[in-house]
Amino acid sequence: MEIEGLERIVREHPFFAGLEEGAGRLLVGCARNARFEAGQYLFHEGDAADELYLLRQGRVGLGITAPGRGALTFQTLGSGEVVGLSWLLPPYRWSYDAKALELTRAISLDAKCLRQKCDADHDLGYELMKRFMPVLVARLHATRLQMLDVYGTHG
Amino acid sequence: MRPPRPWRSAQRRTPCFRALRGPGFEAGQFNMLGIPGIGEVPISLSGDPADPARLLHTIRAVGPVSTALTRLACGERVALRGPFGTGWPLLEAAGKDVIAVAGGLGLAPLRPALHALRAARARLGRVIVLYGARSPQEILFRRELESWQRGVDFEVEITVDHALGDWHGHVGVVTRLIERAKLDPARALALTCGPEVMMRFAIAALRHAGLGEEQIFLSMERNMQCAVGLCGHCQFGPLLLCRDGPVLRLDRLGGLIGRKEI
Lengths: 155, 262
What we know:
The complex is a heterodimer. Chain A has 4 helices and 8 strands, in the order H-H-E-E-E-E-E-E-E-E-H-H. Chain A is α+β, with helices and mostly antiparallel strands. Chain A has a single domain (2-148), classed as Jelly Rolls. Chain A has helices at 2-12, 21-28, 111-120, 122-148; strands at residues 31-36, 41-43, 51-57, 59-66, 70-78, 82-83, 97-100, 104-110. In chain A, helix 1 crosses helix 2 (21-28). The longest helix of chain B has 13 residues, at 107-119. Chain B has 2 domains: 5-84, Beta Barrel (Elongation Factor Tu (Ef-tu), domain 3); 91-253, Nucleotide-binding domain of ferredoxin-NADP reductase (FNR) module (Rossmann fold, 3-Layer(aba) Sandwich). Chain B is an alpha/beta fold. In chain B, the strands form 3 sheets. A 7-stranded mixed beta sheet of chain B has the order 11-9-8-7-12-13-16, sandwiched between helices. A 6-stranded antiparallel beta sheet of chain B has the order 4-3-6-1-2-5. A two-stranded antiparallel sheet of chain B has the order 14-15. Chain B is globular, with a radius of gyration of 18 Å. The chains are: A alpha+beta, B alpha/beta. At the A-B interface, strand 4, strand 5 and helix 4 of A face strand 10, strand 11, helix 4 and helix 5 of B.
């Protein structure tokens, strides 16, 4: 019953919209519900990237702590979005901190479990890749725009 | 064309400058402001069009004229011509959802439209205001935006490119807020103003959300000098932006935005 509920939650998340039933059943084996209070860290820079999060409610800030400058936030993510892409590629380490900015509910997916299932079932792996690639590309474009500093005074 | 005539500045508040009185204007139009002996620059009107007796300009000091304008003391004189150019399509907004996407100083030309939309709120669907700034310190009209956030007329989301830990709002580019706004493309009208690169990304996000070119309006900026379509300095393909713009429907640009060496 609990698994059925979780499968429904996973399949209703916008990131998995339109996911086939079989793939949903495979994914739910790696999933659990997670909850973070405001100020609680989902993970820290340098930690093993052994979980990723599909946000259902709340907001998460991604940042890096710089000596003398404190915590610098470079992106915030909210409901319907994915936190964590470093689990996809070795060395599977987070390169930034992720902190809940308010009460946050998420689906947590065990990255090792997910990687194993993708290795065993390439159709599932391809399906996931098709969903993660647009996220990666959109964030790359957004990062470029931030780097251009378009609101600054130029020339 | 109105002849050049002097105006007396009433007060100066960084980054705004007010004049005592002026002609009526349409949201989106601009004035030519000048300092004798230095020059003249186009500056958008950023006040409430329902209060035309007070002209409000938001000025960033980037060149000799704008720097001189921001250094004016109360009682000093400036030259003013205007208002010039086209305004935002506020009549077309009736019955529609309006999404205003502004970046940096681009909030200033949109602000008169937001005031007008607020006055006409009962005749509109959703009014979504998305604003991106470089940092929390550089958010324009911050108190006003925050009061709108607390109110019920507008859905306001503010994002900054970079922030320290004491900022609890969004961080990231303004175009990402478009994705989150969950627009109904069948009834949306988009107004966007900001750096051209930002507007190109905003247009891409609005198109991705299902809006057509006839639903997207933007405010374009070029080297406006005569402001009446004679000198040609602000030519943009077949358009003279001082006369045909600054506010244009995207399909009028004919794919020129983002094209090099027009």
